[in-house]
Write a structure and sequence with these properties.
Blueprint (H helix, E strand, L loop, with lengths): L13 H17 L8 E2 L1 H8 L3 H13 L3 E4 L3 E4 L4 H24 L7 H10 L10 H18 L3 H18 L6 H19 L3 H36 L6
Helix pairs in contact: 1-3, 2-3, 4-6, 4-7, 4-9, 5-6, 5-8, 6-7, 6-8, 8-9
Length: about 240
């Protein structure tokens, strides 16, 4: 376990402590500094962050509600082990929602084109030299691409559920953009999906979208397994020194 932390300012408000700790721990989980199965105590986090246990506890329970941690009342906290079956189910829900959104968008008359689609065209239908290369930024825009498609369909409950699913799979989905070939592929595939939607080619748009998500899902599973293996190897080779 390799927790990161920074000393706090005595002038910082207590609620800001909890937010900062929450964001730091979430980043530690996403970057595999905290590995699935790792255990730790509130006291360890408080010492590393140089804060009291109260904001630490608030941050930890927030992460538990979001599904990243589980608490053992007699033995501290644990990062939830990766459950790929659960991620598969979340991806299935995501595909169902997005395919329905695309179907609805393609049924609309051309003159009723959504402003969201115009926004997506400006982001994704660009020349190769205009494409972003920063994986983190492309990951954010990729999630926004898929969320906007569902939002544009006009059902707020569909959009809310899709946003919740997107948040839950973000921990592995973002890994798809750690390799430049996948960044280029995302631009190309998003462009094809948009072109099909704008031309009201519903079946083609749905097939392109489903294939795009399935390929990404396979890539992130492979990358996740590799990164977990590498992180565990580093932990074995450089064990943390306790005093």
């Amino acid at each position: 376990m390799q927790l990161s932390g920074a000393p706090s300012s005595g002038k910082e408000r207590p609620e800001n402590f909890a937010e900062r700790i929450y964001l730091q721990l979430k980043d530690d989980i996403f970057e595999f500094r905290l590995l699935p199965g790792d255990r730790f105590s509130e006291g360890e986090i408080a010492a590393r962050m140089a804060v009291s246990r109260t904001p630490v506890r608030q941050a930890l329970y927030r992460l538990e509600r979001e599904g990243y941690l589980q608490v053992y009342f007699r033995s501290g906290w644990q990062v939830k082990p990766f459950d790929f079956a659960h991620f598969e189910e979340l991806y299935e829900v995501r595909i169902v929602l997005e395919l329905e959104a695309v179907r609805r968008l393609c049924e609309r008359p051309v003159e009723e084109q959504s402003p969201a689609l115009e926004q997506l065209k400006r982001t994704w239908l660009v020349q190769p030299e205009q494409r972003l290369q920063d994986g983190g930024e492309v990951s954010r825009l990729d999630e926004r691409f898929h969320c906007l498609l569902v939002e544009a369909a006009g059902n707020r409950e569909m959009a809310r559920l899709h946003a919740e699913v997107s948040e839950k799979i973000r921990i592995i989905r973002r890994l798809d953009f750690t390799q430049s070939p996948r960044v280029a592929a995302t631009y190309a595939e998003h462009g094809q999906i948009l072109a099909a939607i704008l031309s009201r080619r519903s079946k083609e748009a749905q097939l392109l979208l489903k294939t795009h998500i399935e390929v990404s899902k396979a890539e992130v599973r492979k990358i996740t397994l590799h990164m977990l293996h590498s992180a565990r190897q580093r932990t074995v080779q450089t064990p943390e020194v306790t005093t």
